[in-house]
Amino acid sequence: MNKKFLLVCLGLAFFLILFSFYKIDLSTADIGRHIVNGDVFLHSSEYGISKTDLLYTNLFSYTHPDFPFINHHWGSGIIIYLIYSILGFSGLSLVYFLLILGAFIFALMTTWNDTDLNVILPINIFLIPLIAGRPEIRPEGLSYFFLALFIYILYRYSKDPEGKQASYGAGKISPKMLWLLPLVELVWVNTHIYFIFGPFLIGMFLGEELILRYLFKIKNNLEKIKKLGLVLGASILAMLVNPYGIKGALYPFTIFQNYGYRIVENQSISFLENISFINPEFLWYKITFLIVIISSVFVIKKHKDNFPWALAGISMAFAVLAYLGIRHIPAFALVSMPLLIYNITIIKKVLQEKIKIQIDTEWRKILYGLFFVVLIGITITHFSVKLPWNRNFGLGIDQKQLVSIQFIKSTDIHGPFFNNYDIGGFMIFGLYPKERVFVDNRPEAYPKEFFQNIYIPMQEDNKVWNTELAKEKFNAIFFNRLDYTPWAQKFLVTRIKDPLWAPVFVDDKTIIFLYRNKDNKEVIKKYELPKEMFGIK
Fold this sequence. Notes:
By secondary structure, the chain is mostly helical. 59% of the residues lie in helices and 4% in strands.
Protein backbone atom coordinates (compact mmCIF):
# COMPACT_ATOMS: atom_id res chain seq x y z
CA MET A 1 0.00 0.00 0.00
CA ASN A 2 1.77 3.18 -1.18
CA LYS A 3 1.92 6.63 0.38
CA LYS A 4 -0.41 8.15 -2.21
CA PHE A 5 -3.12 5.60 -1.43
CA LEU A 6 -2.85 6.32 2.30
CA LEU A 7 -3.14 10.08 1.75
CA VAL A 8 -6.21 9.60 -0.45
CA CYS A 9 -7.80 7.31 2.14
CA LEU A 10 -7.14 9.83 4.91
CA GLY A 11 -8.67 12.66 2.91
CA LEU A 12 -11.74 10.70 1.91
CA ALA A 13 -12.06 9.28 5.44
CA PHE A 14 -12.33 12.83 6.76
CA PHE A 15 -15.13 13.53 4.27
CA LEU A 16 -16.79 10.27 5.32
CA ILE A 17 -16.64 11.33 8.98
CA LEU A 18 -18.69 14.45 8.20
CA PHE A 19 -21.58 12.21 7.16
CA SER A 20 -21.04 9.32 9.57
CA PHE A 21 -20.58 10.63 13.12
CA TYR A 22 -24.10 10.86 14.44
CA LYS A 23 -25.05 10.56 18.10
CA ILE A 24 -27.27 7.56 18.78
CA ASP A 25 -30.97 8.27 19.24
CA LEU A 26 -31.87 5.54 21.73
CA SER A 27 -35.55 6.45 21.65
CA THR A 28 -35.89 5.05 18.13
CA ALA A 29 -32.73 3.00 17.51
CA ASP A 30 -32.45 -0.78 17.47
CA ILE A 31 -29.09 -0.74 19.22
CA GLY A 32 -30.48 -1.00 22.77
CA ARG A 33 -32.29 -4.22 21.91
CA HIS A 34 -29.17 -5.65 20.24
CA ILE A 35 -27.14 -4.95 23.39
CA VAL A 36 -29.69 -6.79 25.55
CA ASN A 37 -29.84 -9.60 22.99
CA GLY A 38 -26.15 -10.23 23.44
CA ASP A 39 -26.28 -9.81 27.20
CA VAL A 40 -29.15 -12.28 27.57
CA PHE A 41 -27.52 -14.83 25.29
CA LEU A 42 -24.18 -14.72 27.10
CA HIS A 43 -25.75 -14.66 30.57
CA SER A 44 -28.91 -16.67 29.96
CA SER A 45 -28.61 -18.59 33.24
CA GLU A 46 -28.58 -15.33 35.20
CA TYR A 47 -31.80 -14.30 33.45
CA GLY A 48 -33.33 -17.69 34.20
CA ILE A 49 -33.90 -18.59 30.56
CA SER A 50 -32.33 -20.88 27.99
CA LYS A 51 -30.48 -19.68 24.91
CA THR A 52 -33.12 -21.26 22.72
CA ASP A 53 -35.69 -18.88 24.23
CA LEU A 54 -33.80 -15.97 22.73
CA LEU A 55 -33.34 -17.73 19.41
CA TYR A 56 -36.88 -18.91 18.87
CA THR A 57 -39.33 -16.79 20.87
CA ASN A 58 -40.12 -13.14 21.47
CA LEU A 59 -39.07 -13.06 25.11
CA PHE A 60 -38.97 -9.24 25.30
CA SER A 61 -42.73 -8.90 24.76
CA TYR A 62 -45.59 -9.61 27.12
CA THR A 63 -48.16 -9.56 24.32
CA HIS A 64 -46.67 -12.37 22.22
CA PRO A 65 -43.88 -13.98 24.26
CA ASP A 66 -44.34 -17.38 22.62
CA PHE A 67 -44.60 -16.16 19.05
CA PRO A 68 -42.08 -18.22 17.03
CA PHE A 69 -39.70 -16.28 14.84
CA ILE A 70 -36.14 -16.42 13.53
CA ASN A 71 -33.70 -14.17 15.39
CA HIS A 72 -31.52 -13.78 12.31
CA HIS A 73 -29.09 -11.29 13.85
CA TRP A 74 -28.51 -13.06 17.17
CA GLY A 75 -24.75 -13.19 16.54
CA SER A 76 -24.44 -9.46 15.95
CA GLY A 77 -26.13 -8.91 19.31
CA ILE A 78 -23.26 -10.77 20.99
CA ILE A 79 -20.66 -8.70 19.12
CA ILE A 80 -22.46 -5.42 19.91
CA TYR A 81 -22.84 -6.32 23.58
CA LEU A 82 -19.15 -7.20 23.94
CA ILE A 83 -18.07 -3.91 22.33
CA TYR A 84 -20.55 -1.97 24.47
CA SER A 85 -19.45 -3.67 27.68
CA ILE A 86 -15.81 -2.73 26.99
CA LEU A 87 -16.04 0.60 25.14
CA GLY A 88 -19.55 1.91 25.82
CA PHE A 89 -21.73 3.75 23.33
CA SER A 90 -18.87 5.90 22.02
CA GLY A 91 -16.91 2.73 21.29
CA LEU A 92 -19.87 1.31 19.40
CA SER A 93 -20.07 4.47 17.30
CA LEU A 94 -16.36 4.32 16.53
CA VAL A 95 -16.35 0.60 15.66
CA TYR A 96 -19.37 1.09 13.39
CA PHE A 97 -17.57 3.91 11.59
CA LEU A 98 -14.46 1.76 11.22
CA LEU A 99 -16.58 -0.96 9.59
CA ILE A 100 -17.96 1.57 7.09
CA LEU A 101 -14.47 2.94 6.52
CA GLY A 102 -13.09 -0.58 6.05
CA ALA A 103 -15.82 -1.34 3.51
CA PHE A 104 -15.05 1.92 1.73
CA ILE A 105 -11.30 1.13 1.57
CA PHE A 106 -11.86 -2.40 0.22
CA ALA A 107 -14.21 -1.01 -2.44
CA LEU A 108 -11.61 1.62 -3.33
CA MET A 109 -8.78 -0.93 -3.46
CA THR A 110 -10.75 -3.18 -5.82
CA THR A 111 -10.02 -1.14 -8.95
CA TRP A 112 -7.31 1.14 -7.55
CA ASN A 113 -4.68 -0.18 -9.99
CA ASP A 114 -6.90 0.59 -12.97
CA THR A 115 -7.17 4.34 -12.56
CA ASP A 116 -5.78 7.65 -11.25
CA LEU A 117 -6.69 10.27 -8.68
CA ASN A 118 -8.50 12.43 -11.23
CA VAL A 119 -11.14 9.68 -11.43
CA ILE A 120 -11.07 8.35 -7.87
CA LEU A 121 -11.57 11.63 -6.02
CA PRO A 122 -14.70 13.00 -7.77
CA ILE A 123 -16.41 9.60 -7.85
CA ASN A 124 -15.89 9.07 -4.16
CA ILE A 125 -16.81 12.61 -3.15
CA PHE A 126 -20.06 11.99 -5.01
CA LEU A 127 -20.71 8.53 -3.51
CA ILE A 128 -19.71 9.12 0.12
CA PRO A 129 -23.01 10.77 1.17
CA LEU A 130 -24.85 7.68 -0.10
CA ILE A 131 -22.42 5.18 1.42
CA ALA A 132 -22.85 6.91 4.81
CA GLY A 133 -26.61 7.14 4.38
CA ARG A 134 -27.43 4.98 7.40
CA PRO A 135 -25.28 6.31 10.27
CA GLU A 136 -27.37 4.64 12.96
CA ILE A 137 -25.45 1.71 14.44
CA ARG A 138 -26.87 -1.47 12.93
CA PRO A 139 -25.72 -5.05 12.25
CA GLU A 140 -25.66 -4.18 8.56
CA GLY A 141 -22.36 -2.38 9.19
CA LEU A 142 -20.87 -5.88 9.16
CA SER A 143 -22.67 -6.57 5.90
CA TYR A 144 -21.20 -3.50 4.22
CA PHE A 145 -17.75 -4.66 5.25
CA PHE A 146 -18.38 -8.22 4.05
CA LEU A 147 -19.85 -7.04 0.73
CA ALA A 148 -16.77 -4.97 -0.04
CA LEU A 149 -14.40 -7.72 1.13
CA PHE A 150 -16.13 -10.33 -1.08
CA ILE A 151 -16.00 -8.07 -4.14
CA TYR A 152 -12.37 -7.16 -3.53
CA ILE A 153 -11.22 -10.79 -3.26
CA LEU A 154 -13.37 -12.03 -6.14
CA TYR A 155 -12.41 -9.21 -8.50
CA ARG A 156 -8.72 -9.44 -7.70
CA TYR A 157 -8.78 -13.19 -8.23
CA SER A 158 -10.79 -13.17 -11.45
CA LYS A 159 -8.69 -10.37 -12.96
CA ASP A 160 -5.31 -11.71 -11.92
CA PRO A 161 -2.91 -10.83 -14.78
CA GLU A 162 -1.69 -14.41 -14.71
CA GLY A 163 -5.12 -15.36 -16.02
CA LYS A 164 -4.09 -13.60 -19.29
CA GLN A 165 -7.56 -12.24 -19.76
CA ALA A 166 -7.40 -8.75 -18.37
CA SER A 167 -5.67 -5.66 -19.62
CA TYR A 168 -7.07 -3.83 -16.61
CA GLY A 169 -4.75 -5.69 -14.25
CA ALA A 170 -6.21 -5.77 -10.78
CA GLY A 171 -3.11 -7.27 -9.24
CA LYS A 172 -2.34 -10.74 -7.97
CA ILE A 173 -4.20 -12.44 -5.19
CA SER A 174 -3.64 -15.95 -3.94
CA PRO A 175 -6.37 -18.43 -4.90
CA LYS A 176 -6.23 -19.54 -1.27
CA MET A 177 -7.90 -16.25 -0.35
CA LEU A 178 -11.09 -17.53 -1.98
CA TRP A 179 -11.51 -19.96 0.89
CA LEU A 180 -11.80 -17.03 3.26
CA LEU A 181 -15.23 -16.34 1.74
CA PRO A 182 -17.05 -19.45 3.08
CA LEU A 183 -15.51 -18.74 6.51
CA VAL A 184 -16.83 -15.18 6.39
CA GLU A 185 -20.20 -16.57 5.30
CA LEU A 186 -20.32 -18.61 8.54
CA VAL A 187 -20.18 -15.35 10.50
CA TRP A 188 -22.40 -13.44 8.09
CA VAL A 189 -25.31 -15.89 8.19
CA ASN A 190 -25.53 -15.46 11.96
CA THR A 191 -25.19 -11.69 12.10
CA HIS A 192 -27.26 -10.02 9.37
CA ILE A 193 -29.83 -10.89 6.77
CA TYR A 194 -27.62 -9.61 3.93
CA PHE A 195 -25.76 -12.93 4.18
CA ILE A 196 -27.73 -14.07 1.15
CA PHE A 197 -25.54 -11.81 -0.99
CA GLY A 198 -22.38 -13.79 -0.25
CA PRO A 199 -23.23 -16.66 -2.63
CA PHE A 200 -24.82 -14.13 -5.00
CA LEU A 201 -21.53 -12.24 -5.36
CA ILE A 202 -19.58 -15.44 -5.95
CA GLY A 203 -22.20 -16.53 -8.47
CA MET A 204 -21.85 -13.26 -10.38
CA PHE A 205 -18.10 -13.70 -10.78
CA LEU A 206 -18.59 -17.33 -11.75
CA GLY A 207 -21.12 -16.13 -14.32
CA GLU A 208 -18.57 -13.68 -15.68
CA GLU A 209 -16.04 -16.47 -16.17
CA LEU A 210 -18.66 -18.52 -18.01
CA ILE A 211 -19.43 -15.53 -20.25
CA LEU A 212 -15.74 -15.14 -21.03
CA ARG A 213 -15.36 -18.84 -21.82
CA TYR A 214 -18.47 -19.53 -23.87
CA LEU A 215 -19.33 -16.12 -25.33
CA PHE A 216 -15.89 -14.63 -25.91
CA LYS A 217 -14.09 -17.96 -26.39
CA ILE A 218 -11.45 -17.46 -23.70
CA LYS A 219 -10.40 -21.02 -23.02
CA ASN A 220 -7.77 -20.63 -20.31
CA ASN A 221 -10.11 -19.88 -17.42
CA LEU A 222 -11.42 -23.38 -16.70
CA GLU A 223 -9.42 -23.53 -13.46
CA LYS A 224 -11.06 -20.33 -12.25
CA ILE A 225 -14.50 -21.66 -13.08
CA LYS A 226 -13.81 -24.81 -11.07
CA LYS A 227 -12.45 -22.92 -8.07
CA LEU A 228 -15.27 -20.38 -8.03
CA GLY A 229 -17.79 -23.22 -8.34
CA LEU A 230 -16.28 -25.01 -5.34
CA VAL A 231 -16.18 -21.82 -3.27
CA LEU A 232 -19.79 -21.10 -4.21
CA GLY A 233 -20.84 -24.57 -3.09
CA ALA A 234 -18.91 -24.21 0.17
CA SER A 235 -20.52 -20.81 0.83
CA ILE A 236 -24.01 -22.20 0.24
CA LEU A 237 -23.25 -24.98 2.71
CA ALA A 238 -21.94 -22.37 5.16
CA MET A 239 -25.34 -20.66 5.05
CA LEU A 240 -26.83 -23.79 6.59
CA VAL A 241 -24.61 -23.43 9.66
CA ASN A 242 -27.05 -21.42 11.73
CA PRO A 243 -29.46 -22.36 14.54
CA TYR A 244 -32.34 -22.73 12.08
CA GLY A 245 -30.68 -24.73 9.30
CA ILE A 246 -32.33 -24.55 5.87
CA LYS A 247 -35.12 -22.39 7.29
CA GLY A 248 -32.59 -19.81 8.44
CA ALA A 249 -30.76 -19.92 5.11
CA LEU A 250 -34.00 -19.19 3.25
CA TYR A 251 -35.22 -16.57 5.73
CA PRO A 252 -34.38 -13.55 3.51
CA PHE A 253 -36.98 -14.88 1.06
CA THR A 254 -39.70 -15.44 3.66
CA ILE A 255 -39.28 -12.64 6.23
CA PHE A 256 -41.86 -10.39 4.57
CA GLN A 257 -44.55 -13.07 4.71
CA ASN A 258 -45.18 -11.99 8.30
CA TYR A 259 -44.54 -8.26 8.20
CA GLY A 260 -47.57 -6.37 9.39
CA TYR A 261 -46.04 -2.94 9.85
CA ARG A 262 -44.89 -0.61 7.10
CA ILE A 263 -41.39 0.81 7.73
CA VAL A 264 -39.99 3.77 5.82
CA GLU A 265 -36.66 2.08 5.08
CA ASN A 266 -38.42 -0.78 3.30
CA GLN A 267 -40.47 1.46 1.00
CA SER A 268 -39.67 2.30 -2.61
CA ILE A 269 -38.43 5.68 -3.77
CA SER A 270 -41.53 6.21 -5.90
CA PHE A 271 -43.86 5.43 -2.99
CA LEU A 272 -42.07 7.85 -0.68
CA GLU A 273 -41.92 10.59 -3.30
CA ASN A 274 -45.65 10.21 -3.88
CA ILE A 275 -46.32 10.94 -0.20
CA SER A 276 -43.89 13.92 -0.30
CA PHE A 277 -41.21 12.22 1.79
CA ILE A 278 -38.10 14.36 1.31
CA ASN A 279 -34.67 12.74 1.18
CA PRO A 280 -31.64 14.28 -0.60
CA GLU A 281 -30.36 10.77 -1.35
CA PHE A 282 -33.11 10.11 -3.90
CA LEU A 283 -31.74 12.54 -6.51
CA TRP A 284 -28.15 11.32 -5.89
CA TYR A 285 -29.32 7.72 -6.32
CA LYS A 286 -30.96 8.54 -9.65
CA ILE A 287 -27.87 10.35 -10.92
CA THR A 288 -25.63 7.47 -9.81
CA PHE A 289 -27.88 4.90 -11.48
CA LEU A 290 -27.92 6.94 -14.69
CA ILE A 291 -24.10 7.23 -14.68
CA VAL A 292 -23.78 3.48 -14.10
CA ILE A 293 -26.05 2.73 -17.07
CA ILE A 294 -24.53 5.24 -19.50
CA SER A 295 -20.92 4.48 -18.62
CA SER A 296 -21.48 0.72 -18.79
CA VAL A 297 -23.12 0.91 -22.22
CA PHE A 298 -20.23 3.05 -23.48
CA VAL A 299 -17.56 0.67 -22.15
CA ILE A 300 -19.37 -2.44 -23.42
CA LYS A 301 -19.32 -0.96 -26.93
CA LYS A 302 -15.61 -0.25 -26.70
CA HIS A 303 -14.35 -3.16 -24.59
CA LYS A 304 -17.09 -5.77 -24.34
CA ASP A 305 -14.62 -8.67 -24.16
CA ASN A 306 -12.89 -6.99 -21.24
CA PHE A 307 -15.90 -5.48 -19.49
CA PRO A 308 -16.33 -6.21 -15.74
CA TRP A 309 -19.61 -8.06 -16.18
CA ALA A 310 -19.75 -9.22 -12.58
CA LEU A 311 -19.32 -5.71 -11.17
CA ALA A 312 -22.00 -4.42 -13.53
CA GLY A 313 -24.43 -7.20 -12.62
CA ILE A 314 -23.89 -6.61 -8.90
CA SER A 315 -24.38 -2.86 -9.29
CA MET A 316 -27.58 -3.32 -11.28
CA ALA A 317 -29.00 -5.80 -8.79
CA PHE A 318 -28.43 -3.42 -5.90
CA ALA A 319 -29.77 -0.51 -7.96
CA VAL A 320 -33.08 -2.35 -8.27
CA LEU A 321 -33.07 -3.24 -4.57
CA ALA A 322 -32.30 0.38 -3.62
CA TYR A 323 -35.19 1.64 -5.70
CA LEU A 324 -37.60 -0.87 -4.16
CA GLY A 325 -36.37 -0.30 -0.58
CA ILE A 326 -34.34 2.77 0.34
CA ARG A 327 -32.41 0.90 3.06
CA HIS A 328 -30.32 -0.59 0.21
CA ILE A 329 -29.09 2.77 -1.16
CA PRO A 330 -25.79 2.71 0.81
CA ALA A 331 -25.05 -0.83 -0.38
CA PHE A 332 -25.81 0.19 -3.97
CA ALA A 333 -23.36 3.11 -3.75
CA LEU A 334 -20.70 0.93 -2.14
CA VAL A 335 -20.81 -1.91 -4.69
CA SER A 336 -21.05 0.54 -7.61
CA MET A 337 -17.83 2.35 -6.69
CA PRO A 338 -15.40 -0.15 -8.32
CA LEU A 339 -17.51 -0.32 -11.49
CA LEU A 340 -17.73 3.47 -11.81
CA ILE A 341 -13.99 3.87 -11.24
CA TYR A 342 -13.25 1.37 -13.99
CA ASN A 343 -15.87 2.70 -16.43
CA ILE A 344 -14.94 6.38 -16.03
CA THR A 345 -11.26 5.52 -16.41
CA ILE A 346 -11.94 3.79 -19.75
CA ILE A 347 -14.14 6.67 -20.91
CA LYS A 348 -11.44 9.15 -19.97
CA LYS A 349 -8.81 7.25 -21.97
CA VAL A 350 -11.05 6.94 -25.04
CA LEU A 351 -11.94 10.63 -24.99
CA GLN A 352 -8.30 11.63 -24.59
CA GLU A 353 -7.43 9.59 -27.67
CA LYS A 354 -10.27 11.01 -29.76
CA ILE A 355 -10.21 14.61 -28.59
CA LYS A 356 -6.60 15.56 -29.17
CA ILE A 357 -6.69 18.93 -27.45
CA GLN A 358 -3.42 19.88 -25.82
CA ILE A 359 -3.93 21.71 -22.54
CA ASP A 360 -1.04 23.16 -20.59
CA THR A 361 -0.30 21.13 -17.46
CA GLU A 362 -0.84 24.13 -15.18
CA TRP A 363 -4.19 24.94 -16.80
CA ARG A 364 -5.23 21.31 -16.55
CA LYS A 365 -4.55 21.37 -12.81
CA ILE A 366 -6.49 24.62 -12.42
CA LEU A 367 -9.50 23.30 -14.36
CA TYR A 368 -9.51 20.06 -12.42
CA GLY A 369 -9.19 21.95 -9.13
CA LEU A 370 -12.17 24.15 -10.05
CA PHE A 371 -14.22 21.10 -11.00
CA PHE A 372 -13.30 19.41 -7.74
CA VAL A 373 -14.20 22.46 -5.63
CA VAL A 374 -17.52 22.89 -7.43
CA LEU A 375 -18.36 19.19 -6.93
CA ILE A 376 -17.60 19.39 -3.20
CA GLY A 377 -19.65 22.58 -2.94
CA ILE A 378 -22.67 21.07 -4.70
CA THR A 379 -22.44 17.88 -2.63
CA ILE A 380 -22.18 19.73 0.69
CA THR A 381 -25.01 22.07 -0.27
CA HIS A 382 -27.29 19.25 -1.37
CA PHE A 383 -26.64 17.19 1.77
CA SER A 384 -26.38 20.13 4.16
CA VAL A 385 -29.14 18.74 6.38
CA LYS A 386 -26.98 15.68 7.11
CA LEU A 387 -23.79 17.57 7.96
CA PRO A 388 -22.50 18.40 11.47
CA TRP A 389 -23.88 21.93 11.67
CA ASN A 390 -27.45 20.69 11.08
CA ARG A 391 -27.62 17.54 13.17
CA ASN A 392 -26.50 15.90 16.40
CA PHE A 393 -22.89 15.32 15.39
CA GLY A 394 -20.60 13.17 17.52
CA LEU A 395 -20.05 9.74 19.02
CA GLY A 396 -22.07 7.78 21.57
CA ILE A 397 -25.25 9.18 23.06
CA ASP A 398 -26.47 12.35 24.73
CA GLN A 399 -26.91 11.31 28.37
CA LYS A 400 -30.11 13.37 28.54
CA GLN A 401 -31.76 10.60 26.53
CA LEU A 402 -31.65 8.34 29.59
CA VAL A 403 -33.62 10.75 31.81
CA SER A 404 -36.99 9.18 30.92
CA ILE A 405 -35.77 5.70 31.91
CA GLN A 406 -34.25 7.13 35.09
CA PHE A 407 -37.59 8.79 35.87
CA ILE A 408 -39.44 5.48 35.53
CA LYS A 409 -36.95 3.75 37.80
CA SER A 410 -36.73 6.50 40.43
CA THR A 411 -40.51 6.80 40.76
CA ASP A 412 -40.96 3.02 40.68
CA ILE A 413 -43.43 3.16 37.82
CA HIS A 414 -44.44 -0.33 36.79
CA GLY A 415 -46.23 -1.93 33.86
CA PRO A 416 -47.97 -3.20 32.00
CA PHE A 417 -46.78 -0.43 29.67
CA PHE A 418 -48.38 0.51 26.41
CA ASN A 419 -45.60 1.75 24.14
CA ASN A 420 -45.26 2.63 20.49
CA TYR A 421 -43.26 0.74 17.90
CA ASP A 422 -40.28 3.11 17.78
CA ILE A 423 -39.50 3.17 21.49
CA GLY A 424 -39.55 -0.60 22.02
CA GLY A 425 -35.79 -1.05 21.69
CA PHE A 426 -35.16 1.76 24.18
CA MET A 427 -37.53 0.16 26.68
CA ILE A 428 -35.85 -3.21 26.32
CA PHE A 429 -32.46 -1.61 26.93
CA GLY A 430 -33.55 0.39 29.95
CA LEU A 431 -36.18 -1.76 31.64
CA TYR A 432 -35.74 -5.44 30.72
CA PRO A 433 -36.20 -7.88 32.47
CA LYS A 434 -38.28 -6.01 35.06
CA GLU A 435 -40.65 -4.77 32.36
CA ARG A 436 -41.53 -6.15 28.96
CA VAL A 437 -42.83 -4.29 25.97
CA PHE A 438 -46.20 -4.16 24.27
CA VAL A 439 -44.38 -3.99 20.92
CA ASP A 440 -40.88 -3.31 19.62
CA ASN A 441 -39.31 -2.51 16.27
CA ARG A 442 -39.20 -6.06 14.88
CA PRO A 443 -42.34 -6.60 12.75
CA GLU A 444 -41.28 -10.20 12.10
CA ALA A 445 -41.42 -10.98 15.84
CA TYR A 446 -45.17 -10.32 16.08
CA PRO A 447 -48.13 -11.75 14.17
CA LYS A 448 -49.06 -9.67 11.16
CA GLU A 449 -52.62 -9.43 12.49
CA PHE A 450 -51.35 -7.87 15.73
CA PHE A 451 -50.33 -4.70 13.90
CA GLN A 452 -53.28 -4.60 11.54
CA ASN A 453 -56.05 -5.48 13.99
CA ILE A 454 -54.76 -4.25 17.34
CA TYR A 455 -51.72 -1.95 17.45
CA ILE A 456 -52.81 0.57 14.80
CA PRO A 457 -56.61 0.43 15.42
CA MET A 458 -56.21 0.98 19.18
CA GLN A 459 -54.51 4.30 18.44
CA GLU A 460 -57.11 5.34 15.90
CA ASP A 461 -60.31 4.14 17.60
CA ASN A 462 -61.15 4.74 21.26
CA LYS A 463 -63.39 1.68 21.34
CA VAL A 464 -60.52 -0.57 20.39
CA TRP A 465 -58.28 1.23 22.88
CA ASN A 466 -60.75 0.71 25.72
CA THR A 467 -61.10 -2.95 24.80
CA GLU A 468 -57.33 -3.45 24.94
CA LEU A 469 -57.09 -1.37 28.12
CA ALA A 470 -59.58 -3.69 29.83
CA LYS A 471 -57.72 -6.72 28.50
CA GLU A 472 -54.10 -5.70 29.21
CA LYS A 473 -54.77 -3.38 32.20
CA PHE A 474 -52.17 -0.80 31.15
CA ASN A 475 -50.69 1.06 34.07
CA ALA A 476 -48.47 3.42 32.06
CA ILE A 477 -47.83 4.67 28.55
CA PHE A 478 -44.28 5.22 27.29
CA PHE A 479 -44.22 6.84 23.87
CA ASN A 480 -41.83 8.41 21.42
CA ARG A 481 -43.69 11.64 20.86
CA LEU A 482 -41.93 12.24 17.53
CA ASP A 483 -43.77 9.27 16.02
CA TYR A 484 -45.40 11.09 13.10
CA THR A 485 -47.64 8.28 11.92
CA PRO A 486 -51.22 9.60 11.72
CA TRP A 487 -52.44 7.16 14.35
CA ALA A 488 -49.69 8.03 16.84
CA GLN A 489 -50.31 11.77 16.80
CA LYS A 490 -54.06 11.26 17.11
CA PHE A 491 -53.50 8.86 20.00
CA LEU A 492 -51.27 11.29 21.93
CA VAL A 493 -53.75 14.14 21.62
CA THR A 494 -56.58 11.84 22.72
CA ARG A 495 -54.65 10.63 25.78
CA ILE A 496 -53.79 14.16 26.88
CA LYS A 497 -57.49 14.99 26.78
CA ASP A 498 -58.40 11.70 28.47
CA PRO A 499 -59.26 12.27 32.17
CA LEU A 500 -58.19 8.69 32.97
CA TRP A 501 -54.58 9.41 32.05
CA ALA A 502 -52.11 11.91 33.47
CA PRO A 503 -48.98 13.07 31.62
CA VAL A 504 -46.16 13.03 34.19
CA PHE A 505 -43.00 13.32 32.10
CA VAL A 506 -41.99 14.84 28.78
CA ASP A 507 -38.67 15.63 27.12
CA ASP A 508 -37.44 16.24 23.56
CA LYS A 509 -38.23 12.69 22.45
CA THR A 510 -40.50 10.90 24.94
CA ILE A 511 -43.65 11.26 26.97
CA ILE A 512 -44.98 9.19 29.88
CA PHE A 513 -48.61 8.88 31.02
CA LEU A 514 -49.88 7.17 34.16
CA TYR A 515 -53.28 5.64 34.67
CA ARG A 516 -55.21 7.34 37.46
CA ASN A 517 -55.35 4.59 40.05
CA LYS A 518 -54.31 4.03 43.64
CA ASP A 519 -50.79 2.81 42.75
CA ASN A 520 -50.00 5.94 40.76
CA LYS A 521 -51.73 8.52 42.97
CA GLU A 522 -48.62 9.91 44.66
CA VAL A 523 -46.53 10.09 41.49
CA ILE A 524 -49.34 11.84 39.61
CA LYS A 525 -49.83 14.29 42.47
CA LYS A 526 -46.15 15.20 42.40
CA TYR A 527 -45.39 15.17 38.66
CA GLU A 528 -48.60 15.70 36.66
CA LEU A 529 -48.06 18.14 33.79
CA PRO A 530 -50.75 20.71 32.92
CA LYS A 531 -52.62 20.12 29.68
CA GLU A 532 -51.94 23.74 28.71
CA MET A 533 -48.25 22.99 28.13
CA PHE A 534 -49.34 20.72 25.26
CA GLY A 535 -51.50 23.41 23.72
CA ILE A 536 -54.71 21.75 24.89
CA LYS A 537 -57.28 23.45 27.15
